[in-house]
Amino acid sequence: IVEAKNPLLIAGHEITRAKAQKEMIAFAELLGIPVTRERGLFLDFPSMHPLFLGDFVANMRFPRNMDLIVNIGGQFPRMSENAEADPFVFLPKGVKIIHARIEPDDIARLFPTSFSIAGDAGHTLRDLTDAVKSMLTQERIEAIRKPRLEAASKFTSALRESWRRAAQADRDLRGERGSGRRVPRAARGLL
Question: Distance (Å, rounded) from C-alpha 184 to C-alpha 191?
């Protein structure tokens, strides 16, 4: 996790079940790792956090050249190891996988892992955070965290701005077609 150049965290539903959202945020922020989440009903990571990329989709545009996926508490998304077989949902070549779940039957079910952890999401995140803090100096942590956080923040800011522009364009389009409020006003003008 420390040596990865372009890691990605996937926040799974077990984070909410273990009431471990604070631990997930602390771990992501410690090393500036961008976070996505499996699709589900729970808010396993805050949607407006600068490290949050949105729901996991195949072929994430960020981080580029992903070299590590750390899935905490979730099922692994459906992907293929062969881009030719399914070019829209492939696993990046050479990516390492760390998969942590309380349900051991689901670990490494779809893909082999570099490291597997069977345990509660909250305990796992606290232990990972403590391990990193015990291995590295604060200066080394900051040297790892800062560029990752800056890159992720830049990407998520641009992503949110594109969402804002798309929403505004949608509102403008609906306004040009006439909203429910404009029709009665126009009709009153004709009466």
Answer: 10
